[in-house]
Design goal:
The chain is built from twelve helices and 13 strands. It is α/β, with parallel strands linked by helices and 393 residues long. The strands form two sheets. Strands 1, 2, 3, 4, 5, 6, 7, 10, 12 and 13 form a ten-stranded mixed beta sheet that branches. A three-stranded antiparallel beta sheet has the order 9-8-11. Strand 1, helix 1 and strand 2 form a beta-alpha-beta unit. Helix 10 packs parallel to helix 12. The longest helix is centred in the last third of the chain and has 29 residues.
């Protein structure tokens, strides 16, 4: 790295998950990168998250985890709370400068807490932080899930050193692990027509496994043997470092994606503008994966399905979108019938899971029918459905 130390702003988005968020913040304040600032974005939590986080920053003991872990403790950490409008216009520079004199040693900047005012989702909430970061002239912005922690003090330094070395890299992500140490999906390949159809109609599972050993999968658990930076379609949004120059070029996250697929769309835009995206195996992160999400697995699946359909509508050609919608229509009708019949004839203990499956496929069917109606009525124009150049199987 050159003598110049790039400024990094770290965005942590919280919604009713203060326990995980405090774990995340503690890991950030143990990292060894010299010039970083943590920005905590709260999406209008209703569980006293802001109270708990401010107590923690004030150095007070916060109640124990549900898991029985030790209470959080920290020397008082100066912080400032912004409303959305003030934050998006750069905050209060003089007030932040005043707080610098009160900082504990080894902490370069005060904690910034931003109240977004409503639940804006992942893209909308982080965009508030991205606007603040750009106003504050950050060189890089790290988007880190609140249920993720840096596994090493050197993780952020590793990521910045790589980005400084490769000036064509627009974004990078780290290697993700579950809390038990097992590997987690860390990057993926862009949705494509073949991958979508393979998901809907997985006939390939009946064929010899070795036949598809070289096929790029949608979601990838990295090979442990890979130790060098690897070009990928998109790194996981759980730990996503992006260059500010790249954001200026491609724009912010698309807020039509409330939850899931937003980083995929972002990286597709980066690819079209010539920015590289990388997976860094030496930048290790522990990710609980939906550890703070208040809701059922079915609700999570609904968010994902809704977002992936928005991705298809935005980024697939009209021809491909017709095929995808028809594929979902056929698969949804089959699965809806199957699980409805199963629920009728199964035991009481298995009825609810079967009904949930039926409900999930009913939702997919609705999205497919809506897409086909919009295609017929011309509501999805050529300008909206674009070919995904260079997106391959």
């Amino acid at each position: 790295m050159s003598n110049y130390t790039p400024k990094v702003i770290i965005l942590v988005l919280n919604w009713n998950g203060w326990r995980d968020t405090l774990d995340c913040l503690e890991s950030l304040y143990r990292n060894d990168y010299p010039d970083y600032q943590v920005v905590l974005l709260d999406n209008n939590s209703t569980d006293d998250s802001l109270v708990r986080i401010q107590e923690w920053a004030a150095g007070k003991t916060v109640e124990e985890h549900n898991s029985g872990a030790s209470p959080f403790t920290l020397s008082p950490l100066p912080y400032i709370v912004y409303e959305r409008y003030t934050a998006e216009h750069g905050g209060l520079a003089e007030e932040e400068a005043r707080l610098h004199g009160k900082l504990p040693s080894a902490i370069p900047h005060p904690l910034i807490i931003i109240r977004t005012g409503e639940n804006l989702g992942f893209a909308g909430g982080n965009n508030v932080g991205l606007r603040y970061s750009q106003q504050r002239k950050a060189d890089y912005i790290l988007l880190l899930n609140n249920d993720a922690v840096l596994r090493s003090r050197h993780t952020l330094t590793t990521m910045i050193e790589f980005m400084e070395t490769d000036q064509d890299a627009g974004a990078c992500g780290g290697r993700l692990f579950y809390p038990d140490g097992s590997p987690q999906i860390s990057y993926g390949n862009f949705p494509s027509l073949p991958r979508t159809l393979a998901f809907l109609f997985p006939a390939y599972k009946l064929l010899p496994k070795g036949l598809f050993s070289n096929v790029k999968r949608a979601n990838v658990v990295p090979d442990e043997a890979i130790r060098d930076p690897l070009p990928v379609d998109y790194p996981s949004g759980a730990c996503f470092l992006v260059r500010n120059e790249t954001i200026n070029d491609v724009g912010l996250l698309d807020e039509q994606f409330f939850m899931y697929t937003e980083e995929t769309d972002w990286c597709l835009r980066m690819m079209k503008r010539g920015w590289g995206r990388y997976y860094l195996p030496t930048a290790e992160v522990v990710h609980k994966y939906a550890g703070s999400f208040i809701g059922s697995k079915m609700k999570i699946n609904s968010y994902f399905t809704d977002s992936i359909f928005k991705y298809y509508r935005k980024n697939f050609s009209i021809h491909h979108l017709w095929i995808v919608a028809a594929g979902y229509l056929v698969r949804s009708l089959y699965s809806l019938s199957r699980w409805t019949i199963t629920a009728y004839f199964t035991s009481e203990s298995l009825r609810l899971p079967a009904l949930n499956q039926a409900k999930q496929w009913r939702f997919s069917l609705k999205l497919a029918v809506t897409a086909m109606k919009d295609l017929l009525n011309g509501k999805i124009s050529r300008a909206e459905g674009q070919d995904q150049t260079r997106v391959t199987w």
